[in-house]
Design a protein that fits this description.
By secondary structure, the chain is α+β, with helices and mostly antiparallel strands. It folds into three domains: about 240 residues, no CATH class; about 120 residues, Immunoglobulin-like (Sandwich); about 100 residues. Helices cover about 40% and strands about 25% of the residues. Strands 5, 6, 7, 10, 11, 16, 17 and 20 form an eight-stranded antiparallel sheet that branches. A four-stranded antiparallel sheet has the order 2-3-9-8. The protein has a four-stranded antiparallel sheet with strand order 12-13-14-19, with no helix packed on it. It is globular.
């Protein structure tokens, strides 16, 4: 431990100028970021450009700091002067990790905490979100940077390694995702990927420090990046049907609530209007079938909706993978492959639909009075700029929105002085800010009109109540009628 502290002190002495620049960038970000939250600064081009530049400079500073830290006692080669010193690899590794914790992660966390305080949010209510951001940034940025530095000798090669990996990741995942369309992810896929990939990266780092076997460490690093793509593709994109089916059977029991069922209305007028949305995604065509969910009491909110279905036509059978669905008041949105539509064109087919979802029940409504600046449930903060018209309220939440929230209230048709108003409603889904520099989530409230000062808005959180699986058999249906044009 004493040796680790001596190495840490040496690193602080060598990198004091880099740390000073890093601190200056973080301080600048904590000052500039709240300024761009203000809608009055939207037209301030220099400020916007400087804020965008900080988003590039801070990650670049991470790369430079980590590379200089690791390369100060480079692990590649066998002619470095530090090898002749009585350094234990455990002391060297612990000193480097302690430097990263104290000089990279902690200042970043303090900068984000300063932003949360400037949002007037309660920092004690954001601890879970901040820990999640730090964990995701560690696994996605800091740990890969450290492993890349340990298997390279100079910063240029480290940068090239990371650039190639990012380009390959992006190209492969984009090509695969666009080819098959959206799929139902395996539950707990992010957690499983974080454990496996994080353990492999940490294992590679430990192996390189303990053996300095660069060739094998590079192979392990490349293999880990390949495994990341494979796991993302198979888990997040649901490309292992057996795992997804197992999760459906485990997490979504068949509903035993007799009155709760899916109902197909063959006499309903088909909706052919896609509005401003898309009617195709890749090779998938969107259809809206007149299917409703009926049951005891109002079921106003559903989450994690996914559907799988079979199509049987003369000489043709198709079973879809589990895909995201959207069950509205009077229709169910499905993704249909063009091949299945071609086989079913001009004829009636037999369909069997399986729908899984999570039912959400409302909590206690909370009333909020609109002002120029006002607090809202969920640790959020909203602004009402008087110069804007239409959807004129913008809200910010620190780190995450934990629960789906419905916002209701009267909105003006034209102006607040006209006296003409109608009911408005907006639903905010659960969100996470990810690993960005700005820990806040900006959401404009779109209630369908102008929100006036003094308006009473009702915020209702929805809590998970139950998961369920429903089945629907349609003996005869013409899919051509329900395609979105």
């Amino acid at each position: 431990m004493i040796q680790s502290l001596h190495i840490l002190r040496k690193d602080l002495r060598h990198l004091w100028l880099d740390l000073l620049l890093y601190a200056a960038l973080l301080i600048a970000s904590s000052i500039v970021t709240p300024m761009i939250w203000n809608e009055a600064n939207i037209s301030n081009t220099p400020l916007q450009l400087f804020a965008a530049l900080l988003k590039v400079l801070i990650p670049l500073m991470w790369l430079i700091l980590i590379s200089r830290l690791i390369h100060d006692e480079a692990l590649v080669g066998d002619t470095q002067f530090w090898i002749t010193r009585p350094y234990r690899w455990t002391s060297l590794l612990s000193a480097k990790l302690l430097f990263l914790l104290l000089c990279v992660m902690l200042p970043f966390a303090v900068m984000q905490w300063a932003l949360v305080l400037q949002l007037s949010a309660n920092p004690l209510h954001t601890i879970s979100g901040q820990l999640l951001v730090l964990l995701s940034t560690t696994l996605i940025v800091w740990l890969p940077f450290t492993v890349a530095a340990s298997v390279t000798s100079v910063v240029q090669r480290m940068f090239l390694w990371l650039l190639v990996i990012v380009i390959v990741w992006g190209a492969v995942l984009t090509a695969l995702g666009s080819a098959v369309g959206p799929r139902m992810p395996f539950p707990f896929a992010p957690e499983l990927m974080a454990i496996v990939i994080g353990a492999l990266l940490m294992g590679t780092l430990i192996y390189q420090f303990s053996s300095r076997d660069t060739r094998r460490s590079r192979i392990a690093f490349v293999a880990t990046t390949v495994l990341f793509v494979v796991m993302f593709w198979s888990l997040e994109q649901g490309e292992i049907p057996g795992l997804v089916n197992f999760s459906v059977q485990h997490h979504y029991p068949l509903s035993t609530n007799g009155p709760l069922n899916l109902v197909f209305n063959p006499s309903a007028v088909p909706s052919q209007d896609a509005g401003t949305g898309e009617h195709t995604i890749g090779k998938l065509v969107i259809a809206r079938l007149p299917i409703t969910l009926q049951g005891p009491g109002p079921i106003t909110q559903l989450d994690h909706q996914n559907v799988s279905f079979t199509i049987d036509a003369p000489g043709y059978h198709y079973t879809s993978p589990w895909r995201p669905a959207d069950l509205l008041d009077d229709n169910l949105m499905l993704f249909l492959p063009q091949g299945a539509l071609h086989a079913a064109h001009g004829s009636n087919v037999h369909m069997h639909i399986s729908e899984v979802a999570q039912r959400l029940m409302p909590g206690t409504p909370q009333m909020v009075t609109v002002a120029s600046e006002f607090r809202v449930p969920g640790n959020g903060s909203c602004r009402l700029p008087s110069r804007l018209s239409g959807d004129n309220v913008s809200c910010r939440y620190p780190y995450e929105i934990k629960l789906r929230t419905t916002i209701q209230g009267p909105v003006a048709d034209d102006s607040c002085s006209s006296g003409s108003a109608h009911p408005g409603m907006e639903t905010l889904g659960t969100r996470f800010s990810g690993n960005g520099l700005d820990p806040t989530i900006n959401i404009p409230l779109r209630l369908g009109g102008k929100i006036c000062p003094g308006t009473q808005l009702t915020f209702t959180d929805y809590h998970p109540a139950e998961n369920f699986l429903l089945e629907l058999d349609i003996p005869s249906i013409s899919l051509d009628r329900y395609l979105v044009r």
